[in-house]
C-alpha cells in the first residue's frame, strides 16, 4: 500500500488556551484515526510541527 507523508510548521494563535489545545489534539486524533492517518504533533508554546503519514486519500482528507 502506498503511503504519503507531510511535515509542516504552523504558528499557534497567541490566545490558544491549554483547554483549547487539548480539544484540538483530541479532535485531530479522532479525525486522523477515521482517515487512517498517523503522525505526531509537537507544540513549543508558539508553533506547531506536525508530521502525518497514511494513504493518499487519508492525507488528502486531513
Keywords:
62 residues, alpha+beta, three-stranded antiparallel beta sheet
> What percent of residues are in strands?
35-45%
Task: List the total number of helices.
Answer: 2
Number of strands: 3
**Strand arrangement across the biggest beta sheet:** 1-3-2
Average pLDDT over all residues: 94
The Cα radius of gyration reads 12 Å
**Helical amount:** 25-40%
The major pleated sheet works out as:
3 strands, antiparallel
Give the low-confidence spans: none
Classify the secondary structure makeup into a structural class: alpha+beta
End-to-end gap: 18 Å
Encode the helix/strand succession as letters.
EHEEH
Shape: elongated
Please provide a brief summary of the model:
This protein has 62 residues and is α+β, with helices and mostly antiparallel strands.
Overview of the molecule:
The chain is of the alpha+beta class. The protein is 39% helix and 35% strand. It has helices at 18-35, 56-61, and strands at 4-11, 38-43, 47-54. A three-stranded antiparallel sheet has the order 1-3-2. Strand 2 and strand 3 form a beta hairpin. The protein is elongated and about 40 Å long. The mean pLDDT is 94.
Describe the protein's topology.
Blueprint: E1 4-11, H1 18-35, E2 38-43, E3 47-54, H2 56-61
Antiparallel strand pairs: 1-3, 2-3
Amino acid at each position: 500500500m502506498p503511503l504519503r507523508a507531510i511535515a509542516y510548521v504552523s504558528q499557534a494563535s497567541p490566545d490558544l488556551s491549554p483547554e483549547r489545545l487539548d480539544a484540538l489534539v483530541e479532535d485531530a486524533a479522532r479525525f486522523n484515526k477515521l482517515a487512517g492517518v498517523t503522525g505526531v504533533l509537537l507544540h513549543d508554546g508558539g508553533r506547531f510541527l506536525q508530521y502525518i503519514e497514511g494513504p493518499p486519500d487519508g492525507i488528502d482528507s486531513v
